[in-house]
Each structure stands twice: as C-alpha cells, then as structure tokens.
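ok so for the tutorial part 2 we go from a plain amino acid sequence to predicted structure tokens. step 1 is just haveing the sequence, like this:
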Amino acid sequence: MSMRNSLTLAPEEVNRLLREKTPYVIRLKMPAEGDVKLNDLIRGEVVFQNAQVDDKVLMKSDGMPTYHLANVVDDYLMKISHVIRGEEWLPSAPLHVTLYRLLGWQNEMPQFAHLPLLLKPDGHGKLSKRDADQLGFPIFPLNWKDPKSGEISRGYREWGYLPEAVINFLALLGWNPGTEQELFSKEELVQVFSLNRINKAGARFDIQKAQWFNQHYLRAQPDDVLAGYLLSSLKAHQINCPQDKAVAIARVLRERVTFPADFWEQGKFFFYPPTEYDPQVVAKKWTSTVAAVLDAYRQEIEPLTTLTHTDAKQKLDEVCARLQAKTGQILQPLRTAITGGASGPDLMVTLEILGPKEVAHRLATALHTIKPIA
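step 2 — the prediction. this is what the tokens look like for a chain of 374 residues:
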C-alpha cells in the first residue's frame, strides 16, 4: 500500500484537505537515486545510498519540528564545529547532511565523528542502565531516579569515584594514545587526545579497570585528605577522633582502599573492639602455646605508657624467644585477637595506633573468650 500524502493524492484532494485544516506532517523527500557521502573523523568516508534512507518527518502535525530538523537548525545557529555522538546516530547522518545541503548551509556543516558503542563487560552487546544495575556498577555521573519506577541508580560520585579517575577511565574507552601509558592527568589528556586514535570497534566496559584507576588516584592524595574521608564517616557514626589519629589510620589503610568509604569499612576495628573472631584462625591456630605467648605479650605491653611499632615488634620477638615459639606462628592469632580478622593493615603499626592499654585490653578479652584447641 502506497503512503497517503501529497505525492499520491490528486491536487484537488490535497487542496480540500488543506481547506478543512486536516492535520498533516512535513517530510523530507529523499532522492530515489544517488548517494550521500560523509567524511567521518573516526570512520573515514562513509557512503549511504539515497534509496535506503527513509523520508523522515521534519514537522509534526502539531507544528513542532522533530529532532532531525531542530538539531540541524540549532547546530547551525550555534555555529557548532564538531558533532561527536554515538554510532547509533550514524544511520541518521545522511538525513542531516542532506538537510544542510538543502538549507544552503553545506559550507557551514560541522564535522562528524561517530563514537563506538560501549559494550557490556563480557563484550557482548551494548551496555545499558539495566546491565549496570544488575552487575552492580554505575554509569551515571550522579544518582539518577527513574521517573516511572522511582528506583535510584547510584552515580559515580555516590559510589565514591574521584573525578580524575572517571575522566582517565572514560578517556581510554575506545581510545588509546599509541603508547603503553594509562595514567593521564586532565592536562595531559588535553595535549595527547585526538579523534583519529579512537577505535571503530565497540569498547568493553571494564569496571575492574575503573576501580583500579580510582585506587590510584585515591591513594595518591595527601594524608590529611584521606583522613578527611575517615573523619566524615566517623562523624556520621558520632565518633570523635583526633586529627593525628585519623591521619595515622588513613596512612596505614592507604594501600587497602578503593573508595573513600573503605577507610571506615577497613578501619572500624580501630574504634570497635572485636566481638567475633575469625573461625578459621581460632580453629586451626589458637593453640595453648599461642595463648601463653599472647598472655605473656599482654603482660609486657600493659604497663607501657606509649607503644611504637618498633617496640611492639621487639617485645613480641622477645616473648617468643623466651617461650620458644616462632613469631610467624603468633602474628595471625595476634591480629585476630586485636581486630577479629585474619588479615589487615600492618599489624605493628596497628598496635601503635591503638596504644598499649587498648592492646592489652583486647588481648585479655580474646584470651578470656577463645578456648585453645590443644
């Protein structure tokens, strides 16, 4: 069935419909033959056959322009020099190029660059908001609330990604500098970035790589800035902490964090003594010998007024030598007694930050709570 329009109707019928104010749309009539050539900054020359391009609506029946017409007119009036957009817009390019030509603006037409798609982490298919939500990573800069469902998708800022990390990560999605360098400041990116090094193929969205960038930029910040992240969390939990202690904690946790919130998650044991102890350590390593060494160590530590990480290690070595135990066999049970966990930041520095009284108290609690396996 042919389309019912001014090209298929008799002139009398067209005039009658106009007199009766019958709603109508205005379309762009593409030529039946020939082609449209576009010199894309990423893909080179792209040729479109006119016969394969639809006659798109330019003006809707309510008199409002469609995106295609409004986009071209707006870019012309704004003197836009470059149109950089996703490759899903490539099929619309011949329409836009034709509009520039028919409107007499061919010499003012911007240069076009159609970026490759962002693919799912497995490389199969275009990345969507739903994919990101299901896989647990952000794709919006800030929190975004779905106007229909009310569901909130957490943004990069709310996840704790730093702006420098996001910029660096996004710049390398589909682009490379031609070298092995991966870390770029904004100033460096301005100097080296060029459209002609953007790949034509889709770029896999690697969220682990985004986290790697965030780790780098987070860990590179000064101690007082890192301490500020911890202090912000402590304030939310109504915990007072001196600045120097916060700095010391941030410093010892620096290499273990990916996001600012990790300073609290990784370091809350500095403020809350353990109520549970790693079951694997307790079941396999908490022997009567270990308990005896830890009790002797407690007695050495408790009278002290200060405790440096050097003194903490020296005291432990002395106790182990006296009781004929290997220091390596004591370290993990000692950590578990102090933090509740089996791993964590530098143990001796941890003891220094906690101080001798708190260390002795936690050792006493663990020795009272945990029954030796032999």
